């Protein structure tokens, strides 16, 4: 079989001058090659002269000659089918014509400089961008790994005045190199209908990655046309997507609008803006208990995920932050909404899901200020069970089996990322993010969790990267009067602190704890960072290393009047039951 296939190529190979590409006329077709080092096969797509599309999978290590022989065989089969149809047409009285021979056409591959590529060259090396594939008289320009869109989506909910951030996934391309064209529906003339063939007429509205529709577009649908690019002036085939519904009216003034006045610009060199925010997981907002007991004052549509995401993306983008630590982030929200949206504003995202949960933690950092050196995420329960760092604490905890069991059942995690300045490589920072156990009587559990967290952070910031400063953000579910806050702020907690018996005598566990850091709550102790119908208090903090960092400014929280406009949080003008903490920091 292989001998017969090789002979099919013999005529051109043996002909005079076959070592160079003969001069040709006219435009060439495309032969698209996808070749990824991590995969054993490459794919080849092209359309034969008879109009039939071919998609071939070949081993990357296979000699080129075998691939060309297979192409010759496929071309011969296509030619034979065309001849058979022609013969049938003549028999039925169709136009006369010569029956085409079913012989395999000559097939060669030429490099960009016109030299024939040797048959023994492996496929992976042979099929280079700009090469020319010749099948008989037909010629194809090889496009190796051209930019290609794999996914293009628009949010389900569009609000006037709120940014529309598409989800763009591509191969051999990046969203920042793609071309974006936004279109709006043509509004029908009074008493008339939209023009044309029954479909909507579209008018170009913008040429940018993120589009914010104006109030004038309420009631109209949007369309996006995206052309993938690779930053080297290569572009792939475009794709279009239309919104599922029209642009709707926005809620008017939001609680974060006045805060954006302080954060119009990104911080300058030597400073950074940090945000910590529990964004309220959809898993907790969309329950009957949430709608009827926790947030009965909130309009049901304002608890819907799509609505809240519109508010959240506008809020976060408007803070122009360098670091954002989020809690209660649904995995799907991170992948489909937040990561694509914040990527468009220059932020790279990291996600850590809680154990046995659908939500977790997300840390975003500004790409042109920081690069990621390493990640050191950990689940508290797993760390206690298996990490020798916590053996002493684990031994102490073993004396209190009821408490130990509760601690090990919790799904809480700690996200730790070490970042390095892009402009000053000697400047590194350890960014930690967590969400501690929520129960009001769980002070003793939180003390154990924070002890594990600080011990783990010490290992990263003192052992692995000696003396780098830390920023520790999160929802600590602890008020300033709690043992957890006292422990973080002062560096120690006494064994007789009242939080050790926070859930009664049967769950008492007394142990002194300490840590080596000098930490400061950068935003102080606000009256509240969580405001719901039955509770308000300060639970969220941005702790900073007071030896290395200082506070430049704290962005004021919304006024009490703004927070309570719709009774409590969340509301039609605020997407969460928590309030974001924002501060500008600088290295000392």
From TrEMBL:
<keyword id="KW-0269">Exonuclease</keyword>
<dbReference type="InterPro" id="IPR048821">
    <property type="entry name" value="PDE12-like_N"/>
</dbReference>
<keyword id="KW-0507">mRNA processing</keyword>
<keyword id="KW-0460">Magnesium</keyword>
<keyword id="KW-0809">Transit peptide</keyword>
<dbReference type="InterPro" id="IPR005135">
    <property type="entry name" value="Endo/exonuclease/phosphatase"/>
</dbReference>
<dbReference type="GO" id="GO:0000288">
    <property type="term" value="P:nuclear-transcribed mRNA catabolic process, deadenylation-dependent decay"/>
</dbReference>
<feature type="compositionally biased region" description="Basic residues">
    <location>
        <begin position="78"/>
        <end position="88"/>
    </location>
</feature>
<protein>
    <recommendedName>
        <fullName>2',5'-phosphodiesterase 12</fullName>
    </recommendedName>
</protein>
<keyword id="KW-0378">Hydrolase</keyword>
<dbReference type="Pfam" id="PF21171">
    <property type="entry name" value="PDE12-like_N"/>
</dbReference>
<comment type="similarity">
    <text>Belongs to the CCR4/nocturin family.</text>
</comment>
<dbReference type="InterPro" id="IPR050410">
    <property type="entry name" value="CCR4/nocturin_mRNA_transcr"/>
</dbReference>
<keyword id="KW-0496">Mitochondrion</keyword>
<feature type="domain" description="2',5'-phosphodiesterase 12-like N-terminal">
    <location>
        <begin position="146"/>
        <end position="248"/>
    </location>
</feature>
<dbReference type="GO" id="GO:0004535">
    <property type="term" value="F:poly(A)-specific ribonuclease activity"/>
</dbReference>
<dbReference type="GO" id="GO:0005759">
    <property type="term" value="C:mitochondrial matrix"/>
</dbReference>
<dbReference type="InterPro" id="IPR036691">
    <property type="entry name" value="Endo/exonu/phosph_ase_sf"/>
</dbReference>
<dbReference type="Pfam" id="PF03372">
    <property type="entry name" value="Exo_endo_phos"/>
</dbReference>
<keyword id="KW-0597">Phosphoprotein</keyword>
<dbReference type="GO" id="GO:0046872">
    <property type="term" value="F:metal ion binding"/>
</dbReference>
<feature type="region of interest" description="Disordered">
    <location>
        <begin position="78"/>
        <end position="98"/>
    </location>
</feature>
<feature type="domain" description="Endonuclease/exonuclease/phosphatase">
    <location>
        <begin position="276"/>
        <end position="578"/>
    </location>
</feature>
<keyword id="KW-0479">Metal-binding</keyword>
<keyword id="KW-0540">Nuclease</keyword>
<dbReference type="GO" id="GO:0006397">
    <property type="term" value="P:mRNA processing"/>
</dbReference>
């Amino acid at each position: 079989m292989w001998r017969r296939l090789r002979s099919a190529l013999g005529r051109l190979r043996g002909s005079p001058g076959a070592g160079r590409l003969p001069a040709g006329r006219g435009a060439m077709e495309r032969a698209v090659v996808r070749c990824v080092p991590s995969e054993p096969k490459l794919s080849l797509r092209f359309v034969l002269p008879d109009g039939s599309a071919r998609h071939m999978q070949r081993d990357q290590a296979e000699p080129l000659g075998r691939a060309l022989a297979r192409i010759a065989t496929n071309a011969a089969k296509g030619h034979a089918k065309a001849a058979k149809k022609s013969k049938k047409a003549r028999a039925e009285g169709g136009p006369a014509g010569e029956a085409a021979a079913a012989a395999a056409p000559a097939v060669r591959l030429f490099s960009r400089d016109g030299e024939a590529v040797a048959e023994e060259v492996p496929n992976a090396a042979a099929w280079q961008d700009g090469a020319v594939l010749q099948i008989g008289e037909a010629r194809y320009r090889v496009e190796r790994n051209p930019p290609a869109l794999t996914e293009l989506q628009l949010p389900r909910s569009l609000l006037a005045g709120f940014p529309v951030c598409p989800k763009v996934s591509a191969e051999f391309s990046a969203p920042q190199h793609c071309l974006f064209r936004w279109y709006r529906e043509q509004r029908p003339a009074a008493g008339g209908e939209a023009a044309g063939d029954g479909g909507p007429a579209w008018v170009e509205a913008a040429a940018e990655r993120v589009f914010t529709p104006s109030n004038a577009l309420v009631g109209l649908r949007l369309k996006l046309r995206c052309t993938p690019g690779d930053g080297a002036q290569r572009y792939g085939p475009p794709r279009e997507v239309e919104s599922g519904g029209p642009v709707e009216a926005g809620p008017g003034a939001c609680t974060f609008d006045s805060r954006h006045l302080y954060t119009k610009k990104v911080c300058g060199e030597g400073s950074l803006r940090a945000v910590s925010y529990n964004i309220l997981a959809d898993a907790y907002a969309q329950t009957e208990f949430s709608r009827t007991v926790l947030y009965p004052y909130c309009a049901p549509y304002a608890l819907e995920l799509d609505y809240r995401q519109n508010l959240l993306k506008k809020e976060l983008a408007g803070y122009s932050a360098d670091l954002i630590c989020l809690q209660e982030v649904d995995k799907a929200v991170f992948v489909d909404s937040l990561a694509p949206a914040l990527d468009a504003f220059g932020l790279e995202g990291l996600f850590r899901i809680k154990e046995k949960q659908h939500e977790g933690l997300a840390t975003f950092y500004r790409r042109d200020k920081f690069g990621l050196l390493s990640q050191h995420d950990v689940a508290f329960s797993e760390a206690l069970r298996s990490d020798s760092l916590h053996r002493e604490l684990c031994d102490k905890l073993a004396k209190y089996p009821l408490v130990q069991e509760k601690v090990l059942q919790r799904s809480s995690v700690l996200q730790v990322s070490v970042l390095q300045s892009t402009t000053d490589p000697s400047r590194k920072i350890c960014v930690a993010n967590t969400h501690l156990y929520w129960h009001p009587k769980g002070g003793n559990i939180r003390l154990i969790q924070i002890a594990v967290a600080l011990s783990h952070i010490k290992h990263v910031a003192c052992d692995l990267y000696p003396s780098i400063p830390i920023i520790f953000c999160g929802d600590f579910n602890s008020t300033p009067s709690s043992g957890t806050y006292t422990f973080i702020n002062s560096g120690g907690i006494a064994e007789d602190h009242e939080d050790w018996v926070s859930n009664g005598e049967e769950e008492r566990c007394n142990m002194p704890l300490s840590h080596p850091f000098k930490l400061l709550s950068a935003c102080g102790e606000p009256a509240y960072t969580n405001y719901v119908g039955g509770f308000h208090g300060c639970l969220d903090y941005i702790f900073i290393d007071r030896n290395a960092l200082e506070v430049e400014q704290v962005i004021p929280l919304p006024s009490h009047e703004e927070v309570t406009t719709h009774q409590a949080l969340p509301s039609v003008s605020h997407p969460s039951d928590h309030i974001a903490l924002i501060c500008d920091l600088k290295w000392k």
